[in-house]
Amino acid sequence: MKYVRCISLELLLLLTVVAGALWIVMQVTRHQSSWNPSNIFNYGWLDYTNDNDGGPELACDCFAVLQGNALETDKAKILTVTKEFRKRVQVPDEIYINATQNCREFKLSRKYFPLSLSEDEKDFPLAYSIVVHHKVQNFERLLRAIYAPQNVYCVHVDTKSAASVRAAIEGIVSCFPNVFLVSQPVSVVYASWSRVQADLNCMADLYNSTTIWKYFINLCGQDFPLKTNLEIVRMLKSLRGDNSMESEKMPGGKIWRVTNVFQVVDGEIKRTGKKKDPPPFNLPILSGNAYIVASRGYVHSVLNDLRIQKLIEWANDTYSPDEFLWATIQRIPGVPGSKWPSQKYDMTDINAIARLVKWQEQEGQQGSLDAVYPECQGNHVRSICVYGVGDLYWLLQQNHLFANKFDMDSDPVAVFCLEKYLRLKALAMIH
Predict the structure, then answer these.
(1) Which residues does 231 contact at the CB level (< 8 Å), separation at least 6?
(2) DSSP 320
(3) CB–CB of 261/271 below 8 Å?
(4) Which are the contacts of 96, defined by CB distance < 8 A and separation ≥ 6?
(5) How many Cβ atoms are within 10 Å of 255's Cβ, its own excluded?
(6) Which pLDDT score is estimated for 44?
(7) What pLDDT shows up at residue 369?
(8) 221 phi and psi, to 5 degrees?
(9) How far is the C-alpha of 145 from the C-alpha of 67, rounded, in Å?
(10) pLDDT at residue 111, as a whole number
(11) ω into residue 339 within 30 of 0, thus cis?
(12) Are strands 260-265 and 268-275 parallel, antiparallel or unpaired?
């Protein structure tokens, strides 16, 4: 029965690309010495093994890098710092603007999945909020890595973004019926309420969409998945309706963020000199981060629970509210998928599956008793590791769904090898 279902799915896939069959033949023959029609039935045209858009990353041995091979990892590191390589891997915004004039060709050439790859995935749609302000190539490769036709995606583009960034992302979004721009974009200021508002606006749009999704995941443009869509679905099913997010006692060094009043002045968040009133209902304010895995019920509560609305109103003049709001809501009694406020239910970012981030002050050498994770193999931005190829072996051993940060400008090979690994794994899992 499994074999029959697989063939049925493959025939459906073939029907969706009949109009582009000639294009497929041309693409395959361009990259292979001989073409076998059975490749279509084996999803060969969706595979990245022999085709990476002709990019220079093909010089890297991703299989060896992902296995932690030191020699091949060092070769990849050397390649990424060469001027010629960096020049060749850049994709200007105009390329996406022009390419998306023909959506059919764009989706075929970029190998987006046209159908659900399994019944499990089809019956368990997910909702994504993606907040972006630059680096279109990062965004497009992230979208391609997480795209599935049964899911729904809300994209928030900062109103301050360059015109070319907005035009390129609008072009990409226009090619998919289940991907849309947020209805109310905002100007996002670092550490201000606007970062939360961007996700809240996407939450509302996603909740009101026609897709009855199961879980909400919020991302930024420099995230990348560590799991295939099927793996994500299976891990979320195992939560049995619970949420997964960092939520723990707020460190003393961060209390000032919620005891002082802040406001945005000339594009920066600043103290007003005023003290805040206590939070409503004597809610304990807990520490967390901006990125969460939340059930549909949790999102419903965020949008409708009067207690949470009062909390939101109280929090909108604090510093970096995204790093405590979701964590605090997660511990409010009665919120679907939440945990009790007791410290026994505290969850760190290492145990929450939403996002894996290497903080510079918590890195250390192998064997260190104080370090949370090994040293960053890329570079740091705002004390966060921007992953390099040397981080991939460790990343793939972790239980998290996504990791942050990746940057095509810093290390495109890290993204290339990871997306190649995930695509091969996704295709292998359908047979």
Answers:
(1) 425, 429
(2) S
(3) yes
(4) 136, 137, 140, 168, 169, 171, 172
(5) 12
(6) 56
(7) 87
(8) -65, -15
(9) 21
(10) 95
(11) no
(12) antiparallel
Known active-site residue 361: no
Strand intervals (E) in 133-198: 152-157, 179-181
Residue 410, amino acid: S
In this prediction, the residues of the chain whose per-residue pLDDT falls under 50 are 1-42, 52
What integer pLDDT is reported at residue 430 of this predicted model? 79
**What is the predicted pLDDT for the residue at 26?**
39
The β-bridge partners of 403 are 224, 356
Residue 428, CA atoms < 13 Å, CB-side half-sphere: 10
Which DSSP letter does residue 24 get?
H
Residue with tokens 């690309």: 17
Q: Which pLDDT belongs to residue 46?
A: 77
pTM to 2 decimal places: 0.89
Cα 413 to Cα 417: distance, rounded to the nearest angstrom:
6
How far apart CA 393 and CA 257 sit, in angstroms, is 36
Residues in the chain: 431
Structure tokens at 87: 């020049």
The answer for residues whose C-beta is within 8 angstroms of residue 128's C-beta and 6 or more apart is: 146, 151, 152, 153, 154, 216, 217, 218, 219
Cβ-contact 223, 404 below 8 angstroms: yes
Q: What distance in Å separates the CA atoms of residue 420 and residue 425, rounded to the nearest whole number? A: 9
Inter-residue contact 389 to 35 (CB < 8 Å): no
The residues, ordered by sequence, that sit 6+ positions from 111 with a Cβ below 8 Å of its Cβ are: 45, 46, 48, 144, 423
Tell whether the torsion through CA atoms of 161, 167, 171 and 174 is positive or negative: positive
Q: Which is the catalytic residue, given 57, 72, 140, 323?
A: 323
Residues 6+ apart with CB under 8 A from 340: 331, 333
Indicate the DSSP class of residue 392: H
- Inter-CA distances, 313 with 197, 277, 297, 306, 409, Å: 11, 12, 21, 11, 38
CA–CA dist 230, 395 (Å, integer): 18
3-state SS, one letter per residue, for 39-108: HHHCCHHHCCCCCCCCCHHHHCCHHHHHCCCHHHHHHHHHHHCCHHHHHHHCCCHHHHHHHCCCHHHHHH
Q: Which helix (H) or strand (E) holds 224?
A: strand 223-225
